Amino acid sequence: VIRCRAAVAWAVGKPLSVEEVEVAAPKAGEVRVKIVAMSICGTDEHLLKGCLPNADFPVIPGHEGAGIVESIGEGVTSMKPGDKVIPLCIPHCGECTFCLNPESNFCLKSHLYEPQNLMPDKTSRFTCKGKRIHHFLWLSTFAEYTVIPEYALAKIDAAAPLEKVCVFGCGFPTGYGAAINTAKV
């Protein structure tokens, strides 16, 4: 277990509170990441205002970030400790019919199909003050350390500047995709 700081949303409409949290070791298929850089998206604000119907509180928000793999769970093969990674708000299992379709990006493991308030095994890797803290989109980048399913992470080039690529998991592809694919700019 690692103890670190995280911004915890204890209830809808309440301000974030910086707390010391415990982050459990990754289980099979999971990766514990030291978050080095993160950014804020409007979706995080929607969470805090209670606009997301499947969200559970208390929760550690955040879904844009970049970090370094601290440790891996059993069976993780695509990355190792020390690798730089970006959390993906839309996972990519690489096996479902949507991941295998070149015209789709909505994995069957995404939040559109499966709530991501807890890890896939329906438990949390976060505790604070003896209470279970929920995950947000399996990512929770508002923590210094987080545990994420392997298929919700992308290994990136070792030379990538984390403070610049932290928006690549949501903000950049959303904006770029809207401009290129929808608006045809």
Automatic annotation (TrEMBL):
Residues forming coiled coils: none
Entry-linked Gene3D superfamilies: Medium-chain alcohol dehydrogenases, catalytic domain (3.90.180.10), NAD(P)-binding Rossmann-like Domain (3.40.50.720)
One MF annotation (Gene Ontology) recorded for this entry: zinc ion binding
Domain of life: Eukaryota
GO CC aspect terms: cytosol
Keywords for this protein: Metal-binding, Oxidoreductase, Zinc
GO biological process, any: retinoic acid metabolic process
UniProt xrefs under PROSITE patterns: ADH_ZINC
Keyword Zinc on entry: yes
Cofactor(s) of this protein: Zn(2+)
InterPro entries listed in its UniProt record: ADH-like_N (IPR013154), ADH_Zn_CS (IPR002328), GroES-like_sf (IPR011032)
Chain ranges of the Alcohol dehydrogenase-like N-terminal domain: 28-157
This protein's name: ADH1 dehydrogenase
Native source organism of the sequence: Zapornia atra
Lineage, top ranks: Eukaryota, Metazoa, Chordata, Craniata, Vertebrata
